[in-house]
Amino acid sequence: MAMLKFKKQSFIIASHKKLLCFCLASTASAAANMAELTTPQLNSQNTQLRERLEIPSPCYLDPKYVISLLISSIKLSQIRQIHSQVVIHGMLQNLNVANKLLYIYSQHKAFGDAYKLFSEMGERDAITWSVIIGGFAKVGDYIHCFGIFRQLIQSGAPPDNYTLPFLIRVSRDRMNVLNGRIIHNIVFKHGLESNSFVCAALVDMYAKCKVIKDARQLFDKFPCRDPVTWTVMIGGYAECGNACESLVLFDSMREEGVVPDKITMVTVVSACAKLGAMHKARLVHDYVFENNFSLDVILGTAMIDMYAKCGCVDSARSIFNQMKEKNVVSWSAMIAAYGYHGHGRKALDTFSMMLSSRTLPNAITFVSLLYACSHAGLIEEGLRFFSLMLDEFSVRPNVKHYTCMVDLLGRAGRLDEAISLVESMTVEKDEGIWVALLGACRIHGHIDLAEKAANSLLKLQPHNAGHYVLLSNIYAKAGRWKNVAKVRDLMSQTRLKKVPGWTWIEVDYNIHKFSSGDETHPCSKEIYEKLKNLNEKLELAGYVPDTNFVLQDVAEEIKVGMLYSHSEKLAIAFGLIATPVGSPIRITKNLRVCGDCHTFSKFVSAITQRVIIVRDSSRFHHFKDGVCSCGDYW
Q: What is the pTM of this model?
């Protein structure tokens, strides 16, 4: 009996080897034509194939072995040959084999084969539905994705916590909150609202669709919030621009005893970067090191970005130096940090170090490098790097690289070269190109080119109020008030409103926000008194308000009054009152810093002996001893 059993096993192993050889053979034409045969013909051919190749009957084939063949197959042709043999030997009725075959087709993005197989499957389980729906979702075929999900619902089969997150993410990626709500109703109907995977996906979907209130309501109702759900909600606030609430939520997470993981910390670090709050950044930094989070390329790079955007490029470099492993993203982040702090030469030196470390630059590296050249006035260096991209590093310039070059040439007043570059571009132009050109026209007062750039820009983004404002400001600077009125009328007709300017400062872990002429702050009386005393000292030192930056057709004394209470000045005055003597004052503005406020900040840094760090919408300005790090080239 033992001998017979041994012979039978030997026979099966030998047969499996022959099956593998057959599956990989290019001469299996009978299998390829299988779909055209009738059932009797197919049965006859099966018998002939078994006899010729000594393949055992279906009862002797091991599904595990067939699955291992599928997993080890590299080419799609091999998978199709195995599929043919699975059908020939009647193994498609084995759900494990059919599901694995469906999964392998999906992995190879062969969705024609996958859908045909799915359609022919007599039996389906939760894995079947999850694989086919998830596969179509990953490749962006939303029509088939939702179509098959509709079949799932109509079949009466209950959706599960694997399938539903795919549908929710599709709604998120398409910013389709209506579809998301429909899926949410199905989730509720099937009692899956308390599932952590499904809940996290829904919270994420609502947050990405900018319906943050719905995301928070769902989050608050969830009884068992795990680190994933907390991380999604924290990230959702940061995504919607409410980075401050992200950090409040992080504190609540720790108070509830939930231990954050590395993904949570990366999310929190990114929120600190968006907020630009140095004190919060220091606290997060301490938490990372006290809890022994490893400074890998992901967390380390996020912390470089955090410190750089909080205004401390030296701390960013310290983190960079501590990282044991650096990749191209880490190097690019450090180059970018130097770039928007105006340290162009240091950015170039870091690029040289990167090449010495044998790390090859990518497209992002060159965006960071060209940006650094643009903001430091390194014209020839920028032109050289732009030509080296393709010639030496095989990096093809995209629209972001062209935008940097237009900005670089435009800032330098080389507008003819900038427009020639725009006209010679082989890649599709986007709004960034025209914004860069329009910005150059603002600096150099080129009205005709500004109008051309604005017209192209408004065709791409007709509902962006910022573009209208920029053109209006160019007209105002040139004293063309009739044109200013026309632009403002056009904005009024299209119901567009100018984004209000805000400046905020962090003091004692609290964020204090100011608008122009703001009198709502509890210390408003002290702030204006400080500002009055400050202006008297500044005038003695030679400061004269530059009314050219008041872009309204009003009397000169009114212009001076309007400059007096700009949000940057209110924040700086409060910083002088509320922060320790000698400590840096860090402020953040949501728009480009005003030229008069730039001059004001230089004078304040000189007479108060305080370092003032201003982060505006495009870069950092470090004011010290009456000088700005930008060299007045901004």
A: 0.78
